[in-house]
Amino acid sequence: NKTINIDENNQKIPIITISRKAGNNISFSSDGNIIYWSLGPNLYQQSIKEAASLNDSQITSTYISFKHKSDASHGIIALVGAKIITMEGDEVITNGVVIIENNHIKAVGKNNEVTIPDHAKIIDVAGKTIIPGIIDTHAHGAQGDNEIIPQQNWNTYATMAFGVTTIFNPNTKTSEIFAASEMQKAGHIVSPRIFSTGMSLYGAYEPGHTAIVNSLEDAKFHIERLNAVGAFAIKMHHHPRREQYQQIISAARELKTMVLSEGGALLQQDLGKIADGASSIEHSMALSKVYSDVKQFWSASETAYMPTLVVSFGGISGEHYWYDKTEVWKHPILSKFVPQDVLAPRSMRRFTAPLHHYNHFSIAKVVTEMYDLDVIIGAGGHGQREGLGVHWAMWMMAQGGMTPHEALKSATIRPAKHLGLDNNIGSIK
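Request: output the structure for the sequence above.
Response:
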């Protein structure tokens, strides 16, 4: 038996390109003369005869979307007596009050300065600290499998139990993540808010994943198909030539789409992406020291830095430090939601190493230096450990020299501004 690769260049069996438009859910009419496919809110159809002639003008498009009310809480709640870290500058309110009405913050301030409505439900939170919901800015994770979105998902339960109320997944299965996002908005599943790039524009060869980009038009095609299903950002990933990155970034700028760039532990490549206008570098630079030229250059750009310290390059990743130094499998939140056959093997059977072998200390020090130069830093857990990973990311930033307040900003207001969501999330105001 011999394997035959099926692609557009195959000469051994008859293959035709049905359409230049991308799509999913391919099906045929009962007589086999019409082919159907969908992309986002549109259903496309074309006769097989016209398809064989590559006549895109004969494609019929039907808008099949519908509107659904977003799920939202109702009533008025007053949270009374807590310390409130608002993320509005360095503001910290002691003995504060937050008034929430119908899913919106209506008032925040000191206890003696905020009038609590008579019909509000009062929750005494004296001795507690309130921060904005945490934003995990680099959160891979299982929102679905085989295009099935589970009604009950222990992964999302654990994530929310750790206070993570928004996730951004840069590279996952397109047909699953945006479906889960819509279901969360409608209240059909319990989950943090979900944003994503969908599947990344992957440059290396991988069947079903590779996105061929050899021109500006190629780049526009890929970005438009992802925009159609709900992406306001795309991920560019391991293209071998700089001109390909430039084509993607140029197309994205024209289509008002963010470009998140996979960091490949190659400083020169990362600097080229920054020069060309990438919205962010995802993953860490594999360097224990960065000099003034790089700092000046990066800080003069608007490119954010998502170092994902749990998988920091250049040495032992930060995730393993926490397995080494803490008994993760005993964590009361993780052990409540995460099945032991998932949690225990990775956290119990762990290796140990001297502190100076853990590279994240050096990486985090550079991250702090970049933060001090006003580069937007975002905390990301990378999906390594449900909900807890983004807390590890904040703790490791503190190990690198950030103050606790700065580390909290990197998981709240800073990534909110990076994603253009700071009018709605990221601070308490």
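The chain has a mean pLDDT of 93.
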